Amino acid sequence: MTLTQERPLTYAKMKGLVTFISGRSSFLIINTFLATYHCFLFVFIRVKPSDFDYLKVIGTGSFGKVLLARHRKEGGYYAVKVLDKQMIIKRKEQRRVMVERSVLLKGLKHPFLVGLHFSFQTPKTLYFVLDFANGGELFYHLQREGSFPEPRAAFYAAEIAAALGYLHSLSIVYRDLKPENILLDSEGHVMLTDFGLCKEGVAVGGITHTFCGTPEYLAPEVLLGQPYSLAVDWWGLGAVLFEMLSGLPPFYSCSRLEMLENILYSPLRLPSGLSEGAHSLLKGLLERNISKRLGQRLDIEELKEHQFFASINWDDLVARKVRPLFIPKVVRINQKMVRNIISTSSRLVLIVLSFSRPVLVMCATSLLRSHCNLSLPPSTTGRRQPLPAQPFLDSPS
Hints:
This protein has helices spanning about 85-90, 95-105, 140-145, 150-170, 220-225, 230-245, 255-265, 275-285, 300-305, 315-320, 335-345, 345-350; strands spanning about 10-15, 15-20, 25-30, 40-45, 50-60, 65-70, 75-85, 115-120, 125-130, 170-175, 180-185, 190, 200, 210-215, 330, 360-365, 375, 385-390. By secondary structure, it is α+β, with helices and mostly antiparallel strands. The protein has two domains: about 10-135 and about 330-385, Phosphorylase Kinase, domain 1 (2-Layer Sandwich), CATH 3.30.200.20; about 140-320, Orthogonal Bundle (Transferase(Phosphotransferase), domain 1), CATH 1.10.510. β1 and β2 form a beta hairpin. α4 (about 150-170) packs antiparallel against α6. The two termini are about 15 Å apart. It holds the Pfam family Pkinase. Belongs to the protein kinase superfamily. InterPro entries: Kinase-like_dom_sf, Prot_kinase_dom, Protein_kinase_ATP_BS, Ser/Thr_kinase_AS. This is Protein kinase domain-containing protein.
């Protein structure tokens, strides 16, 4: 898997200065505290794998797993991403992991983004301790229901747009919007996750070049190898909204080559039975001419004014005062279930806990909060994988 050689990543964050160095056989994470007279309050906490009870595998990836875990002292439930360092190096994915950690360490403060609570490591493994969104992936619910009614799709699209707008305000382009990366919490609100394909330093009007993303949701300018802007995320939103309303992404084909050709050249065929506002929004977001695409000039402010979102009070939406139209059915975790899961997963727990050397990690005290409404998310199959990030070449290789 080839990655673009871009400028070295540096992390001068409001929360500190973090250097992330990769080596041949291991990763070295140096956490350094950088304070100003404004002084955000930080504490150093010694965290190790055995501080958590690991209850269930809730996700798998190319170089790690996501585990449902309970903090033994606090009792809070988290999603712990466990990454194998050697596999990361073997697949040459160091930069992707570094980018995800960099974005998470910005201390994302948005109700529709998954947040980081702790990050630590052992000689062989990296750990990200994240918010646990227990309502399952949007992908799962789409598979089960086929499509969503327009009001429900509009609600999800508005919350996704709010999250993207927040990332864009931090000069971050997301680049991998798809139902698999959109989680629901127990109340039915969305939470975007997986920031490995994000690109930092792309302000409104700025451009970047890296070829990456998931085929069904790639914007035409990415496929053509052209410089692209934050507007690729609005194309992605259009593709996800189209899928929520129709059951399939726009331009979909079982043949990947045909699908990519459709994205570039085929006319957009809108689902029947939708409102005029839905048709207008889909046309605006899935506009191949970047200069005419909705969101290209004023980013999310253009979407807020669109008739499709006329019923949305955006301040109430971000304050989570708008009641979701669908509440996921979740399975509550009780002590008996916890004991049973641990007893049947002892081998997994032994593997996870086999590296017990603690490291110092820096964590804001504001992130040390307890959790409630705990449940197991539904498992999903058939996840679509993003294409490897790679540079554009003048000729195929």
